[in-house]
Description:
- The protein is of the alpha/beta class.
- Helices cover 39% and strands 16% of the residues.
- The protein is built from seven helices and nine strands, in the order βαβαβαβαβαβββααβ.
- The protein has helices spanning 23-34, 46-54, 72-86, 111-139, 160-180, 218-229, 231-234; strands at 14-18, 38-43, 62-66, 91-94, 143-148, 185-192, 196-197, 200-201, 241-244.
- Strand 7 and strand 8 form a beta hairpin.
- The longest helix has 29 residues, at 111-139.
- The radius of gyration is 18 Å and the shape is globular.
- The termini are far apart.
Amino acid sequence: MPIFMQAFDPHTETALVTGAGNGIGRAIAWGLVAEGVRTVFADIKPDTVAAAVEMAADPKLAIPWVGDLAQRTECDRLLSESRAHLGLITHFVHSAAPPRSEADHALAVKDETWVQMRAVNVDAGFHLGRELAKSLIAAKVPGSFMYLTSLHADTPRNLPHYSTSKAALAMLVKEFAKTLGRYQIRVNALVPGAIAAGGSVADPALARHIPLGRLGKSDDLAPLALAVLSNRISGYVTGAAIVIDGGISLTNWFDPPVLED
């Protein structure tokens, strides 16, 4: 049988996707549903979650969940309600992240903005991943996790709360991959470039820095994300950072932030 005929087993595989209300998270969640995988669409805004579920290939396979992952109690509620709907969760995608503002450079970002970014990106990502892994280990079932990091895990972005949280996620992927590999739980990072979707609108002027000549779209990332999530296609891939950026990482295009005297 061709290896791409069925990337997932709808009878045994399920998924939880955070940040599934829009952008890259939504595109990946839609792709999983299109493959027949029952998937929880988790996000903070009821209207975007409802629209994402309604537009899925098979809305009966898409389970909406709304809450603020900056709160530990909400993370635990997400785990509880997802398990109630799906049973054992075999695939996890952490795409949730608070919106960003270009004004939040190192001398301006507020403490609460810093805390919220790390709470959603790092703390929720760690807690959800660890708890889902524990269930898979207990059941002796393989799994596949994916975290959305950033090119700015390695290069400054003038948004220190964002770039440092993504750097932490990049290391978390490696830590999880090394620890969980013995249980056949694979953990990888998806590293987007300038994508015209989600919580930050990419500047169209960036296209001049991209060798492929255009900004990316969420749909550019979803096919490879699904391939890496699939144990049938990428069963020997873990701890990897999959860059999908049109080549923009070949240059660093950001100037220092403009500071007031």
